[in-house]
Amino acid sequence: MMTAQATYHEPVLLQQSVEALVIDPQGTYVDATFGGGGHSRAILARLGAQGALIAFDRDADARANAPIDPRFTLVASDFRWVANQLRFLGKWPVDGLLADLGVSSHQFDTPERGFSFRFDAPLDMRMNQGAKRSAADLLNTLDEADLAKIFKDYGEVAQARRAARAIVAERARASIATTGQLAALLRPLARRGDEHGFLAQVFQALRIAVNDELGALRQLLHDSARMIRPGGRLVVISYHSLEDRLVKNWMRAGNMEGHEQKDLYGNSLRPFSPVGGKAVQASEEEMDRNPRARSARMRTATRR
User: Please, which residues have CB within 8 angstroms of residue 37's CB and are 6 or more apart in sequence?
Assistant: First the structure.
């Protein structure tokens, strides 16, 4: 029988990520993206009596999934502030950090959250329901150039300028308030047969902009060099090339651009060493069971 947590969100690459993360059962670990708690529960199952896990999530809905365990702490916070929170809690440094990026199944499947064009619902897309700016706010206030940049940079939308122009023209007549309105407006711009993919790119771009997802990821990666002790692990699961590129560059080069720097003696200045070569992907069996796993890429690095 499916548990409430599995209904909320089925964790991707569960065993692979937890095995890569937990190298000391008595250590202290971070689950930066708690969600349904699947990864957290698997981590706790591998920890000993002295182990500890601190999890983070900015979505109020996720807090109902918190396990009752003296080794577990859930912090209601965006993961960009993990470093500050760990210092406040006196949990510094940690032995490893796991981040399963993107949107939970619960967020996608709850119509009123506005993440999906499968429903006609308010254009919200806020992961933190207390945040001030929604997707509708962006669509109805940003100028054409800024909207086009969001679609191009965050969604790699081929018709970014045309989409932005159509939105600006439409909102001059009436505000764009729902996912259904936006989908109906933009669907004619897609290539025949690619309507779903086109809308997915646009919605992804808006979601990333609303939640500053790439900014938060950059901050988390940068701070990971200070948070994780030498020998500890950084494990990140990403779902699109924009995220994966940042993660790969950081692990391989120590910066987001991917330009490795060396000292006067030719030694690399990167704080992490990648574990393995290519990113780990889900098996065909997992993809069949959980279609969201199809785009997942997991990368692991050890703190030097």
Answer: 5, 8, 55, 62, 65, 66, 67
Q: Are 113 and 135 in contact (CB under 8 A)?
A: no
Q: What is the pTM of this model?
A: 0.94
pLDDT tens digits, one per residue of 74-121: 999 999 999 999 999 999 999 999 999 988 888 999 999 999 999 999
Which domains does the chain carry? 4-105+213-303 (3.40.50.150), 111-211 (1.10.150.170)
**DSSP code per residue over 112-161:** GG---TTS--B----SSTT-S--HHHHHHHS-HHHHHHHHHHHH--TTHH
Q: Where are the beta strands (DSSP E) in the chain?
A: 28-31, 52-56, 72-75, 94-100, 228-238, 272-280, 297-303
Nearest to 271 by CA among 236, 244, 302, 237: 302
